[in-house]
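Example 3.2
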Amino acid sequence: MNLARSWKAWSLLGSAALVVGMVASPGASALASESHPSVCTGTPTAPGVLAGDYEHGVIIKGACEVNGGVASVEGNLTVSRGSVLVAAFALNDVKQKGKSRLLVWGNVYVQKGATMIAGCFPTSFPCIDDPSQSSPTLAMAPFVKGSVVESAPLGVVIHDAWISGSVTEVRGGGGVSCTPSGIFAAFQSPVYSDYEDSTIRGNLWISGLQSCWLGIARVHVGRNATIWNNSMADPDAVEIISNNIWGNLTCRKNVTSASAMVGNAGVWDSADPTSNLFPRAPLPNTVHGHRYGDCRLSSPLTPGGPLGPGKF
């Protein structure tokens, strides 16, 4: 099950948000004073608009969108506790001219219970404002000069991003359940975290996450990738597919509802081409270092089948 596709439900809420955004000037909800960080505020039904240049960092409080042009943040971007940042728009939907993009020249911090959606890509996660959701063509590639540090977030979804540092997601999620909760309930989507079609020049570390689904697909990781002690409710988690990892790949103590069928502690290097869990289509990773733990042998292609002889 590709949970990223369920994000299309957001377009209903997104359309209402665009109406709100068009009656205010870009960045009107982002307030700053001298050397203090700017603060972007809003609600899910009336989100703030993050656009323009911010010299001293930004703090998201409530709900904000990057849909009013380029948002360039010098310093750090912090999505505060329980807040939401959606940067998955390709166009400037406020001025109805130009493009939108998120640029962060420091680190990104996603705090407890917060949600960040950053980037969009035609083949894996269509932009919310793409005119054709059935045949999307638009993309938005976020840039982060530093690292993305996630401390018990509700969920983080990243596509088509360039991250010069590392990505760390520790604890968080909506619990081992696929029942929509938090801001995900407004999207009619289960809570999940996902990293696809992106470049992370440092390490990728995900541990202690309890959620519905976790995916890592077509990501270039410059150093090591570690997927440790995560619990997922969806049988299709954890999907680790078609990545290019220049260091080591380590998977240990990951549990899903299909762990018994997988025989590989709930990690897959294959995808389900249909709506059923099986049969599987092999999509192995390229690992230039060593494979440790459960990410050593190919995951089974049939229910309860043996682990494949190939490299994960």
